[in-house]
Amino acid sequence: MNKLHLPDNIIRLRHAKKLTQEELAHMIGVTKGSVSKWEKGINTPDVLLLPQLAALFDVTVDELIGYEAQLSSEQIRRQYAQLCRDFVTLSFSEAVEKTRTLAHKYYACYPFLLQLCILYCNHYMLAETEADRRFLLQEALGWCDRILENCSDVGVCGDALVLKAILLLYLGKVPEAIEVLEPSADPGRMAGQERTLLVQAYQMAGEMEKAKTYAQAKQYSDLLELVGDTILALALHTNDLAYCEETVRRAKGMIELYHMEQLHPNLTAQFYYQSAVVYAANEKDEEALASLGRFETCVGRLWKEGKAALHGDDYFDLLDTWIDRLPLGSMAPRDKSLIRQNLQDALAHPVFDHLRKKEAFKRLMARILKGGVEYA
Asked: How far is it, in rounded angstroms, from Cα 245 to Cα 290?
């Protein structure tokens, strides 16, 4: 539990109400000396007086005493995992209400509030109406603003800023998202060099194991980011087949070199899916089906592993500590049943309409959507 701030809060709230110590004492039924000792931290009010003081100041008892409920990293992960299950097993409204109750309870636990924003980003599409979806996104946007206004953790605030931009894009508020992102995305800024400098600092301090671990984590995350950037490039240049073919050639070389299908099948599946979209859009049916075949392989690996978890391999063998420090550790941000629904939606893309009559596409789609049954 955080340090309580009752003396400071009594002073602040009394001044806000424009009350003297004597006036407050009279209203509560104690002596002026008692109020003075409360404010100096010599004594504290009797527990029975706390609700009366809170009511007088129009605050909750928790706000009066300065209590801010906090969760540990492990507790945050457990709560997030349970909420993911709730969005699958409960009605949507029940899952949302449970999320809101936890948000109010831990409103000052900013790392947890950040994860609730991520939870909404991953599940808002389950709402039945567009109005409900937008309401949830706006609610998460409000949580991001609260984090940015009150949290002193630079890392949490940085993540909240990115999430705010994502939520604005989901809401169609593109100019606002650009306004949020442009300052931090300026290539002339020094931000982004922190991890390299930290590795160098550990090396200079003689802490070689930490230097090696952070260097490997940086290499791993940079690799994932590069594959993600390749997916964006394909989406941006769909009509430029020559550019996309060269991009696919280079990316496939990297994927094979680093064994990405085993290392991170979820991200690699996204790459092959986007490749299939490009080929299908350019009526390169054979290539589109080949990319969907690789997509199927990655999806099959996901089902077989049972989760889209982060992990290393024989080369990236120092990642456990780094992964364990991530807010959600190695666990996936969505339940597997929701991933299956996303796969179905992805394969329903209109760009594949002319492939639907092909037996190869039908068989492939059936195998993918059977999920755990086929790949168990």
From this structure: 13
Portion of the chain with pLDDT greater than 70, in percent: 90
Distance separating alpha carbons of residues 170 and 123, to the nearest angstrom: 12
Alpha-carbon span 355 to 183, nearest angstrom: 43
Nearest to 64 by CA among 146, 142, 4: 4
141: CB partners within 8 A, 6+ apart: 164, 167, 168, 171
The residue behind tokens 């550019």 is 243
33-74 tens-digit pLDDT: 999 999 998 988 988 899 999 999 988 887 788 766 788 888
pLDDT of the residue at 192:
66
* CA separation for the pair 293, 352 (Å, rounded): 14
- Among 332, 342, 266, 273, smallest CA distance to 299 is for 266
| Segment 114-135 mean pLDDT | 94
The pLDDT, as a whole number, for residue 343 is 78
Average pLDDT of every residue of the chain: 88
Instruction: Give me the pLDDT at residue 371, please.
Output: 57
| Inter-residue contact 179 to 134 (CB < 8 Å) | no
Q: How far is CA 228 from the centre of its chain?
A: 16
- The pTM is what? 0.71
pLDDT of residue 91 exceeding 70, the answer is yes
